Amino acid sequence: MRRFLPGRSGSLRRLVLQPLIFSIPFALFFCYVNTGGISKIVDYYVGSLFFSFAVTLAVEVNRRWVAPRVVPPSPRGGPPHPLQVVSYGVAAMLGSVAGAVLLNYTIAPGMFRSSRDVVLLLVYSAIFTVLFLAVIYAMRATRQLARRVREETLEEEELRVAAEIQRALLPARTRSTATYAAAGAAIPCRSIGGDFFEYFDLPGNRLGFALGDVAGKGPSAAILAAMVQGIFTTNVGGDDGPAATLSRVNQSLYKRGIEARFATIAYMILTTDGRLVSSSGGHNPAFLLASDGAVRRLDKGGLLVGAFENATYEEETLTLRPGDTLVLYSDGVTDAESPSGDRFGEERLRSILVDRAAEREPEAILERILGATREFAAGHPPADDITVLIVRYLGSRSTS
Predict the structure, then answer these.
(1) Cα–Cα–Cα angle for 387, 393, 398, nearest 5°?
(2) pLDDT for residue 241 is more than 90
(3) pTM over 0.85
(4) Cβ(217)–Cβ(385) under 8 Å?
(5) ∠323-329-335 over CA atoms, to 5°?
(6) CB 320 within 8 A of CB 270
(7) Angstrom distance (rounded) from CA 283 to CA 268
C-alpha cells in the first residue's frame, strides 16, 4: 500500500475523489429503479460508496500489477489491447462483488435473502463494470487526444520555425551585378526540404554558384542540407575549380559517416570575361541556353557527394557570350507527376527553354518553369522538393 500513500497524487485522486464522484450517478440510478425515490438518495449514495471504493481499488490494483503483465503497455499509446480490457472488466466485477459482500456484513445485513437479490447483485455489478470501463477508457482517450494535440501543435511550431530558418539560409530570390543576373527558388514538398542553392563571391570578381539535393525528405533531409551547405561554404575559395571543391566536400561529408545519406550537387564558377567552369557530383546535367536559342547540356562530373570516399570529379570549361543562360534544377522538376502518374520529364523542361526563353529575364524563366510544373501536377501533391536556379551572363561591363 506504500504506493497509495500521500505523495502519489494520481493514485490518491483515483482512490478517494473518483469514488466520491462516481457514487452520485449510481445513487440517482438506485433512486430511479427502487422504491423510496429521492428521499433515500443519502442511503443509496452511502451504499454506492461501498461499490465505488471497492471497484476503484480493484481497478487500481489491476492497473498497477495485473494489466502490465498481461500485455506490456505500448510506449506510444494507442488503442488498448483486448486482454487489458478483459482484465479491467474482471477487476471491476470482482470489486463490485466485494463491495456488495462488504455492504452485506456492515450497514446492510441480509442483503441476499433470495435468489432475486443475487441476480440483482450480478446485474448491478455488470452495470458498475460497464460504467467504470466506459469512464476509464473515455478518460484515457481524452488524455491521449490532449497529448496528441499538444505534440502536433509543438511539432507544427517547430516545423514553422525550422522552415523560417531554412528560408533564411537561402540567398535572395534574385541577384544581379554588372556581369550577371540570377534568380532562384527552392520549394519543399513538405514544410522543410532537402534542396538548396547558393552563390559564392570568389576572388577576382568570380561568381561561384551551386544547387544541391540531399537524399530523403522532411526534417532529416533539411538538417543534412544545412550541413552540406555549411560544408560547401567553408570549402570554396582560392583558385580551386569546381572539381577540387566537390572532392573536398565529398571527403568532409563521407568522414562524418552518416549512413545512407548523400547529396547531388552541381557547382560552377563564372568569371567576368565569360569563362565558365562546371562540374557535377551526380546531379542532373544543367542546361546551357545560348543567346541564339540553342540548348546544350553540361554533364561533366562524377559520383554522388558523400557516398564514396575516393570519388573523383571531372570539369568542363567553356566561354559564354552575353545573353547565355544557365539553368540548374533538382529532380523534383523532372519527376513532378500529373494526376494520371505521368512524369514532367526533361523534354518538357527543354521545350520551355527552346520556346523563346533566351528573350526572357531570369526571373521570368524561373516563374515559367515553376508555373509549368504546377500546371502539369494539377494539384497532385509533389513527391520531391523543387529547386531551380537561373544564371545569365551579361558580359564584361565596367562596374564604375
Answers:
(1) 135
(2) yes
(3) no
(4) yes
(5) 140
(6) yes
(7) 12
Half-sphere exposure of residue 141, counting CA atoms within 13 Å on the CB side?
8
DSSP 272: T
Tell me: pLDDT of 296 over 60.
yes
Residue 292 scores a pLDDT above 60: yes
Phi, psi of 2 (to 5 degrees): -60, -35
3-class secondary-structure state, position 129: helix
pLDDT of the residue at 313: 96
Domains of the chain listed by start with CATH number: 2-161 (no CATH), 171-393 (3.60.40.10)
Radius of gyration of the chain (CA): 36
pLDDT in tens, 153-169: 777 787 777 778 777 77
Nearest to 377 by CA among 342, 330, 352: 342
Whether residue 83 contacts residue 71, with contact meaning beta carbons closer than 8 Å, is answered with yes
DSSP-assigned letter for residue 4: G
Residue type, 106: T
Our measurement of the distance from residue 397's CA atom to the centroid of its chain's CA atoms, rounded to an integer in Å, reads 47
Q: Residue 216 — φ and ψ, nearest 5°?
A: 95, 180
Phi and psi at 263, nearest 5°, equal -145, 155
What are the tens digits of pLDDT across the range 38-80? 778 888 888 888 888 888 888 888 888 888 888 876 666 667 7
pLDDT in the model for residue 5: 39
Query: Cell for 221?
Result: 533531409
Using alpha carbons, select from 171, 127, 158 the residue that is nearest to residue 29: 127
**Cβ-proximal residues to 397 (8 Å cutoff; 6+ apart), any chain:** 178, 179
Helix 41-61 vs helix 82-104: crossing angle, to nearest 10: 140
Residues 347 and 358: their CA atoms lie apart, in Å, by 17
